[in-house]
Amino acid sequence: MQPFKWAPKEIGTRHRLGGTPDFIQDNEWPTCPMGHGRMSFYGQLDSINDDICIADCGMVYVFLCFDCFSSVAIVQSS
C-alpha cells in the first residue's frame, strides 16, 4: 500500500485497541444509547494513505457497551 504523500509521518500509525483514545478534537466519550452509562473505548482506526483517508487524516473511534453490546463510532479530524 502506498504511504501518504503530504501527511506527517505519524499519520497511519495511530491505530489502537483498548486503552485510552487519542482524541484529535474534544473528548467525545459517548454514553450507552440504552441507558447503561459511559461506554467502553474499544479502539481507534487511523487513516491509511491518500486513497483511504478519513476526513482530512482523521480517525474513527469505536466504543462499546458491554451490558447490551451497543456500539458507537465517532469520526474526528484535524
Instruction: Please count the beta strands (DSSP E, at least 2 residues each).
Output: 4
Total count of domains? 1
* Cα shape: elongated
From the helix content, strand content and strand pairing, which structural class follows? mainly beta
Order of strands across the biggest sheet?
Answer: 1-2-3-4
Order of helices and strands: EEEE
First CA to last CA: what distance? 23 Å
Please give the count of helices: 0
Main sheet: strands, sense, barrel: 4 strands, antiparallel
Task: Outline the low-pLDDT stretches.
Answer: none
Rg is 14 Å
- Kindly state the percentage of residues in helix: under 10%
Task: Give average pLDDT, whole number.
Answer: 93
Would you give an account of this structure?
- It is a single chain.
- The protein has 78 residues and is mostly beta strands.
- The model has no long low-confidence stretch (mean pLDDT 93).
- It has one domain.
- It has a 4-stranded antiparallel beta sheet, with no helix packed on it.
- The radius of gyration is 14 Å and the shape is elongated.
- The two termini are 23 Å apart.
- 0% of the residues lie in helices and 27% in strands.
Keywords:
78 residues, mainly beta, four-stranded antiparallel beta sheet, 27% strand, 0% helix
Short summary:
The chain is an all-beta fold and 78 residues long.
